[in-house]
Amino acid sequence: MPSAVAEVAAASAWEAVRRALAETDPSAKCRRVGALWAQVESGQWRPEDPGPPGALPCGRPARPEMVAPSQLPRRGLGSVEGRQALIHAIAHIEFNAINLGLDAALRFPAMPPAYYRDWLQVAADEARHFGMLQRRLEELGASYGDLPAHNGLWEMAEKTAHDPLIRMALVPRVLEARGLDVTPGMIRKLAAVGDQETVALLEIILEEEEEHVAIGSRWFRTLCAERGVEPESTFRRLLEEYFSGGLRGPFNRDARRRAGFSAEEIDRLVEMDGAGSTASR
User: Fold this and answer.
1) Phi-psi region of 260 (alpha: psi -120 to 50; beta: other; left: phi over 0)
2) Which of 30, 95, 237, 271 has the largest count of CB atoms under 10 Å?
3) What one-character DSSP code corresponds to residue 277?
C-alpha cells in the first residue's frame, strides 16, 4: 500500500498537471509541463490513476483569433510572410497538442500507469516542439498569436471526451496523424526555398510525432482488446460516424504503418478521401 506521504505527493503532482492544463500563457505552460516531465523521468513521481476528472478548464491565450479554416491566410513559402504563416499554423497545432496530452492524462481514470506516463511524455514533447517553433517565428519577425488559427483539433477532443477508446481512435490516429502525411511535403517545399532552419525543426517533429501516433494506436488497440471489439471494424465505424464528410489525402502509408496502422485501416482512409487522391509513400 502506498504511504500517506506518497499519496499526498501524487495528489500534489496531479494538481500540478491540472494547473499546467489551465495555464493560459504558452511559455509558462511549457515550463510547467517540462517540470512535470522531469519529475516523471527522474522517478520522483510515478503517475497512476488521477481519479475522477471533474472540470478540466483548458488554458489558452487570448490570441490567436479563432477563425474557420477557409479564412486562414494562404501564402507561398517563397516569402517570409508565407513561412511565418506555415510555422504559426504548426505552432498552433503543437500548442493544442500540449493541452491534448495533459487532458488525455487527466480525463480518463482507471487506466494503467503506462498510459499516464505516455501522455505526459507526449505533452512534454509537444511543449518542446512549440518552443522550437516559437523561437523560429521570432527569428522571422513574428510571434505566436500574430496570425489567426482554427480550432478543429480541440473541437474533436471535446467530442471524444466521454470515451478513451474514441479519443485514441480519432485524435492521435486521425487529426494528429495528418502531420505524418503532410510534413514531408512541407519539408520538400521549405528545402526548395532554402529554409534549412525550419526544415531541421520539422524533421525532428516528424520523427517524434510518429511515436505519438503510435502511442494512440497502442492504447486504441489495448482498449479494443479489453472491450472485446475488433480494431479495424471499430476504427471504420468511428470514421464513418465522426467524419461523414470524408477525409483529405494524401496518406503516408510507410509512416502510418510504423505508427501502428494496419493496411486495412489505411485503405479505409484512402477510400474516404473526398478528393480521390492516392496514398503517398
Assistant:
1) left
2) 95
3) P
Q: How far apart are the first and last CA of the chain?
A: 51
Cα–Cα distance between 174 and 245 in angstroms, integer?
Answer: 14
What's 186's DSSP letter? H
Q: Residue holding cell 509558462? A: 28
Nearest in space to 37 (alpha carbons), one of 127, 116, 121: 121
C-alpha 70/C-alpha 25 separation (Å) is 27
All three cell numbers of 100: 491534448
User: Running DSSP on this structure, what letter comes out for residue 71?
Assistant: G
C-alpha cell belonging to residue 101: 496530452
Residue 69 DSSP label: G
Q: Is the pTM of this model over 0.90?
A: yes
- Four-way CATH pick for 76-271: 3.40.50.620, 1.25.40.10, 1.20.1260.10, 3.40.50.2000: 1.20.1260.10
pLDDT in tens, 215-258: 999 999 999 999 999 999 999 999 999 998 778 889 999 999 99
pLDDT tens digits, 8-43: 477 799 999 999 999 999 999 999 999 999 999 999
